[in-house]
Give the backbone structure.
Amino acid sequence: MTTVAGIRIVLGYAASRGVAVPELCASLGLDPADFDNPLRMIPFTLTRAVWLATIERLPEDNVGAGAGLAARTEQIGYAGLLLSQARDGLELLQLMVDSGPLTDTALADEPVTLVRCGGDGEVRVPPVLSAGIPERTEALFISMLSSLRRFGLAALSPTQVRVTFGWSEKRAIAERHYHCKTTWNADQDVMCFDRKALLSPLPGARPGAADEFRALVANEIKKRTELPFTERVRQVVHQQLRLGNASQQATAVALGMSGRSLQRELSKSNLTFSQLRDQVMEHCAAVLLRDETCTMEEIAKKLGYSEPRSFSRLWLRLKGETPTRYRVRLRETR
């Protein structure tokens, strides 16, 4: 699971390059309104789908470099001000690493880490972050680097960057931003900085800002993890429906658990996965049916069905009437 904060950056970059975001979302069976709340939880499979669709529409661009440069620490609100008040580059970099789970919950279990190695500070990225999308790692590295430069270390560059993916003409764009040696097809994604350079003080330093930032991040992560389990499952199923695979196994994978564990947790609320999926399906369909401008074909597609007939059978089973009759009855009631 992750939040839509990162996707909003990618879609914003795509829009700035002339991509019709509504059309891009429609091609994935999504509604742009799904991304209005930056803290909304979505399965990683959807994140990957949006990234790849954007990359496909911008074949001449390095989307990772573009998204990384477009990213702003203000995406986490007040925390952006606190970041600018860190004591030095090392503390600022550590705070950015610590806030990883705020925008990508997959990093709560496999976090990005900042480790000391000899005279260097190394930002190490877990495999879960790339997961078939090298541009995600590029965006992370360039976003961190641009933040360090923007907040007072304008001349800072890594000493080296090692990445698990291969070089390409497009990635030469990212390489130019690093201003250092880049090793391709490495065994791990790592960005190295000279520790002494990182210890340069920042002009806006304020004692206590780092502690306030960590408290803010901890509070946001706590609020998210306290969401009832059934609600987390509902959110995932809602997104999986539009991808055409709201199966128990697909939902379990998106939540980082086995299908058996998913059902065991749901049983604590006296629910089966099928019952919960039907509830989500019924709610989504009812909302769509109230919109007279939405055709049965469009409704079926948004719910992950290839044809209206399949959706009609589902609605008949859930409500005891056809969707057409339901819509007529709503109109009569109005």
Summary: DSSP finds 20 helices and seven strands in the chain.
